[in-house]
Design goal:
The chain has 15 helices and twelve strands. The protein has about 450 residues and is α+β, with helices and mostly antiparallel strands. The structure holds manganese protoporphyrin IX.
């Protein structure tokens, strides 16, 4: 067996912290390990963090028989907030299976068909807001508006709740509170430098207040349904309130339901919003890809002004989908996942792991594995042309995680995102600020920071 490579400049006690940034843990870690090969280990204040970034090793780690999901590092503070709700449940916790089985019907293709009209309504609100900006010649803040879109979509489809995201200039208080809670969580697990500790002490009280706000809002949403003020439907909330497990007859308890609602509000929008924002960013840098995407939507929806996409139109937007796939390859908005060994094992035929040892699959690294991805830094949606995926190892691309703990909302996110991006490209020509250089913010998820667009209507209004 062999020792796992580590960064060259290891300090006594502190370990491999040179260059690590508590505000940008993913990007700074990436710089630290990217030249160390498909597996490496960092020691941060006594904790060894084994990072996997090669497709062959990922295939082993993704195997549910050998490894389980691990609620590690970045997920730990989230666990404090939402406990054993779907995303943060440890493998094998009873509420995971219970909630997973109860909620599964909300993510079938039929369920997507049911969400389509609502998703379209929300996309139209985005267009209305961008029309106003286009008329005024004003810039739009892409990530902020995509967050409005995805927040509104999960609120309405999942819980019958309207946040009114497009009716206000400022982000919804839930979004502000949630963003701060996530940032606080992220800092609290970062190397505990003195400056960070001081920062944390100052914001602990605000963190409580933020959590209270989120809980209150969620409780209001649940109460409104219980009192019959919002329509009783088989959406996420309806399923959780009314359904017993088909096998065991058990139901979710009220505390768990609250935690699931918060989980879905968070998991259901941050990542999709980032994916849409990165996709638009790349398109503004690649005019030929933009032109192809626009040709595709034009061919489907014509040159007319207000297309009404049918449910079955969305899977036909193959190139728009490939743009999103490629955006999620370069900057996977959920940048990694943790896996723990179920038993003592040997990885790659030579790296020994003991039962319970965990590794992190760092997706921006995996998605640039030079053995799989030629010219990995280049944005090229054709990597996702029909049939292309069959020519590379299945575990080389995992933006939605792996195995039984993979994203339950994948189809939801893709339907929503392809439709919204398609409609945006059909209607506008996006013009970036020529001075913009990509900067990425991290709040557990990744988003382009300060990315603004000026929009020109492609088809003038009558
Ligand atoms: Mn989502 C799990 C990425 C959209 C709800 N999601 C995961 C995981 C990844 C992920 C990666 C696995 C994490 C881990 O192993 O620790 N999710 C995404 C991305 C998008 C996304 C990149 C959009 C793009 N996710 C959504 C949407 C919803 C959602 C939309 C809900 C409507 N995701 C979840 C839930 C889980 C999850 C719930 C946890 C599933 C489980 O463990 O059973």
């Amino acid at each position: 067996t062999a020792a796992i490579p580590h960064p060259p400049h290891r300090l006594p006690l502190l370990g491999d912290v040179v260059g690590l940034s508590p505000r940008r843990p993913v990007q700074s870690s990436l710089r630290l390990v990217r030249d160390l090969g498909p597996i490496s280990v960092r020691r941060v204040l006594g904790t060894d963090i084994v990072t996997v970034g090669g497709a062959d090793l990922a295939a082993e780690v993704d195997d549910d028989r050998r490894f389980a999901k691990h609620v590690g590092l970045g997920l730990r503070p989230l666990r404090l907030v939402v406990g054993d709700a779907l995303f943060t449940a440890e493998d094998g916790e009873p509420n995971w299976r219970l909630a997973h089985d109860i909620l599964r019907p909300a993510f079938t293709r039929e369920a997507m068909r049911g969400y389509h009209a609502t998703m379209l309504d929300v996309a139209r609100e985005l267009l209305a807001s961008w029309d106003a900006a286009a008329r005024a010649g004003a810039e739009v803040d892409v990530a902020a508006d995509m967050t409005r879109l995805t927040m509104e979509t999960i609120g309405r489809t999942g819980f019958g709740h309207r946040f009114g995201s497009f009716e206000h200039d400022r982000p919804h208080p839930f979004v502000t509170a949630m963003t701060r809670v996530l940032r606080f969580a992220q800092l609290s697990v970062s190397p505990t430098l003195v400056s960070v500790r001081r920062l944390l002490a100052g914001s602990a009280r605000r963190n409580r207040a933020d959590m209270d706000l989120m809980n209150r809002l969620v409780d209001d949403v649940i109460d409104a349904r219980r009192r019959g003020e919002t329509p009783d439907r088989d959406d996420l909330l309806g399923l959780m309130l009314r359904t017993a497990h088909p096998g065991t007859g058990r139901t979710l308890d009220p505390v768990n339901i609250r935690r699931q609602v918060i989980t879905f509000m968070v998991a259901g929008h941050e990542t999709t919003s980032g994916a849409l924002s990165f996709a638009l960013y790349h398109l503004t840098r690649h005019p030929e890809a933009l032109a192809r995407a626009q040709a595709e939507v034009d061919a489907l929806w014509g040159q007319g002004d207000d297309p009404v996409p049918a449910f079955t139109d969305i899977p036909r937007l193959r190139y728009v989908r490939a743009v999103l796939d490629e955006a999620l390859r370069l900057w996977p908005t959920a940048p990694g996942y943790f896996r723990a060994a179920r038993e003592d094992t040997v990885l790659g035929g030579r790296y020994r792991l003991e039962r319970g040892d965990w590794v992190v699959v760092m997706l921006p690294l995996l998605h640039r594995d030079p053995a799989v991805w030629p010219d990995p830094e280049r944005f090229d949606p054709d990597r996702f042309a029909p049939g292309a995926a069959r020519r590379r190892p299945a575990h080389a691309y995992r933006p939605f995680g792996t195995g039984q703990r993979a994203c339950i909302g994948r189809q939801f996110a893709l339907h929503e995102a392809v439709m919204a991006l398609g409609l945006v490209l059909h209607r506008y020509h996006p013009v970036p600020d020529p001075g913009y250089d990509l900067r990425i913010t991290e709040t557990l998820t990744l988003k382009p920071e300060g990315f603004r667009l000026t929009l020109t209507r492609r088809v003038p209004a009558e």
